[in-house]
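Lab notebook, design round three. We kept the backbone fixed and only want residue identities now. Task for the bench partner: fill in a sequence for the structure below.
Input structure tokens:
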């Protein structure tokens, strides 16, 4: 059962079907007995037939799952969705991306599908403009119900879906009603001007993406079937951050080269430290001599990140051990923040 799974588990979904097809041909060739001698047939029946039957059963299961995935992939909106997500990451055509997200909400696609797009828009821009946030939040409540108000609140607290700080800061002194109205109008005008700008604004997400080289250039060719770059797990559009950080350790044995870049990430960073045996004081190490690296992720890790780390280990001939508190996905994360009866 697990033999077929182990062969395909790290592959990009679009290339799995061809691998399963080749596997089916291989099993068919093994099952052919017409050219076998009596002794070969006896050996085949007693030693190999049971294993081949098990592989046939496993293969049928995976082909069935693959058909479901391919049917979803062939839908017109799937390719459009991938293009929109790529544009959001690149900071391009953001007005079109926002309109697409509104369409997803108003067509009442699954709530998790809509929220994931809304969160991606927010994260990539350090929050949405106030007008855009209010508009999307209102449309979302109207489409999916007020039971998700708490979900929107939790996402805002986590920094996953929030509005940007006002472009015009409020006055430190108490203003008159006329001044308030004028300020509100000025803020709205400023937001409209910001919205109309064609080129992407600066954001911490783009700074991190650039410093850690998370988004491959369009000119870069990514082989999805025989990958040599970790971005293959997302179709060549994005490299998981945990992969880039681990790569620095695997290749250079230290995070020293990324010390400044690590300051861009939330939270504190402890780089290559160990305790002195005699004094007990913590001292920095110079390198990591071992070819085994243990990566532990608190909060959860995605299967895409695991696949990227496995490829990294293969490319550099090292053993990467992965530990985590749980396996997560965008859908499962939103489920923990949503009502029990959420669809």
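Proposed sequence:
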């Amino acid at each position: 059962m697990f033999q077929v799974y182990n062969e395909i588990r790290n592959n990009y979904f679009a290339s799995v079907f061809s691998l399963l097809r080749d596997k089916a041909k291989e099993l068919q060739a093994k099952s052919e007995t017409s050219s076998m001698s009596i002794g070969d047939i006896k050996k085949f029946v007693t030693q190999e037939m049971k294993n081949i039957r098990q592989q046939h059963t496993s293969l049928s299961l995976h082909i069935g799952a693959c058909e479901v995935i391919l049917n979803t992939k062939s839908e017109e909106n799937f390719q459009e969705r991938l293009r929109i997500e790529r544009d959001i990451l690149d900071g391009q055509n953001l007005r079109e991306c926002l309109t697409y997200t509104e369409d997803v909400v108003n067509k009442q696609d699954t709530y998790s599908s809509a929220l994931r797009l809304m969160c991606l828009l927010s994260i990539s821009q350090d929050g949405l403009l106030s007008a855009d946030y209010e508009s999307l939040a209102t449309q979302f409540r109207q489409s999916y119900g007020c039971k998700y108000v708490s979900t929107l609140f939790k996402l805002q607290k986590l920094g996953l879906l929030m509005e940007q700080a006002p472009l015009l800061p409020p006055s430190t002194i108490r203003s008159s009603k006329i001044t308030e109205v004028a300020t509100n109008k000025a803020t709205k005008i400023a937001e409209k001007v910001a919205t109309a700008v064609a080129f992407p604004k600066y954001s911490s997400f783009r700074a991190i993406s650039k410093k850690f080289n998370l988004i491959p250039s369009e000119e870069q060719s990514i082989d999805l079937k025989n990958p040599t770059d970790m971005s293959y797990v997302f179709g060549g559009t994005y490299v998981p951050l945990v992969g880039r950080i681990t790569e620095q350790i695997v290749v250079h044995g230290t995070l020293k080269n990324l010390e400044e870049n690590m300051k861009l990430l939330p939270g504190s960073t402890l780089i290559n430290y160990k305790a002195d045996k005699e004094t007990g004081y913590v001292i920095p190490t110079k390198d990591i001599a071992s070819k085994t690296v243990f990566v532990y992720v608190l909060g959860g890790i995605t299967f895409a990140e695991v696949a990227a780390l496995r490829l990294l280990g293969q490319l550099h001939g090292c053993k990467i051990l992965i530990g985590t508190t749980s396996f997560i996905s965008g859908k499962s994360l939103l489920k923990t923040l949503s009502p029990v009866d959420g669809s």
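Keep this in mind before ordering anything: The longest strand covers residues 292-297.
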